[in-house]
Amino acid sequence: MQNDFTTPLAKARGTGSAHSGSHHWIVQRITAIALIPLGLWFLSCCLDFQTMAYENILRWIAEPLHFAGFLAFLIASLYHAYLGMQTVLEDYIHHTCAKNSSIILLKLTGSGLFILGFSFLIKIAFMGR
Amino acid sequence: MNTPVPPRQSRPLSPHLQVYKPQITSVLSIIHRLTGMGLAFSLFFFVYWLGALASSETHYKQALSFFGSWVGSSILFLISFAFYYHLTNGIRHLFWDAGHGYALETVRKTGWAVVFATLILTLSTWIFLIDAK
């Protein structure tokens, strides 16, 4: 008695469930909920920075809690964007090779943006001491 | 022995988007994807802005003059619109995920609420910005 409804052929082809879809879905929701306060907070920061001098912005971001908030926003927004873009690529690119390479490119771009953003934030924190 | 061969003609696939009547539900769903993609791309601008801040005051001023230019302000305007839309419609999605708001009438009402909230929030943000200058 099989309690898994994937046909043996589909299993051999590797088209059965990978049992990892719910993780993607859950993380997308967690980052979405986190981004409600983080996004609004970041937007209000941007509006405040309009009227602030360069040194004051550096000093403001260098405050431990503000720094942590910026880092949280960077991580949550990049991760959420990555998950969403992955879904879009999977939905609209049907050619397997093109799909997989574009997802690899997406991962590299997201990682690159994180490394850059994180480095810049650390530099700002030292400059604003 | 003749085994039946399935016909291999290319039939149009559901949901026939080219003949599908646009409805508030489908249009808002498509805009949610589009704004999400736009916001994902806008993270390049966020990291660019951080880089300018981390570099020097000269580079920061350069970034400001880009964001203050016609092209830059238009991009920022579109980002703010996408942000408010994706935020309010995202909250609508989270309620659906929790199992609420599926009645057709409710779906239509919350959809229009998202549209009006986005317009009001976007416009008031820009009125505030122009007023502060």
Shape of chain A: elongated
Q: What is the H/E string of chain A? A: HHHHH
Task: Describe the largest sheet of chain B.
Answer: none
Mean pLDDT of chain A: 92
For the termini of chain B, the CA-CA separation is 84 Å
Number of strands of chain B: 0
Oligomer: heterodimer
Uncertain stretches of 5 or more adjacent residues of chain A: none
Largest sheet of chain A: none
| CA(first)-CA(last) distance of chain A | 67 Å
Helix content of chain A: over 70%
Strand content of chain A: under 5%
| Relative strand content of chain B | under 5%
Class based on secondary structure composition and strand pairing of chain B: mainly alpha
Number of helices of chain A: 5
Fraction of residues of chain B in helices? over 70%
Estimated radius of gyration of chain B:
22 Å
Largest interface, by Cβ-Cβ below 8 angstroms: which chains and how many residues each?
Answer: A-B, 32 and 29 residues
Taken in chain order, the helices and strands of chain B follow as HHHH
What sort of overall outline of chain B do the alpha carbons produce when their principal axes are compared? extended
Query: What's the number of helices of chain B?
Result: 4
Q: What does this entry look like structurally?
A:
The complex is a heterodimer of chains A (129) and B (133). Chain A is mainly alpha-helical. Chain A has helices at 8-13, 21-49, 54-62, 64-92, 96-127. Chain A starts with 7 loop residues before the first helix and ends with a helix. Chain B is mainly alpha-helical and 133 residues long. In chain B, 76% of the residues lie in helices and 0% in strands. Chain B is built from 4 helices and no strands. Chain B is extended and about 80 Å long. The A-B interface holds A 29, 32-33, 35-36, 39-40, 43, 47, 50-51, 54, 57-58, 61, 74, 77-78, 81-82, 84-85, 88, 113, 116-117, 119-121, 123-124, 127 and B 33, 36-37, 39-40, 43-44, 46-47, 50-51, 53-54, 57, 60-61, 80, 83, 87, 90-91, 93-94, 97, 125, 128-129, 132-133.
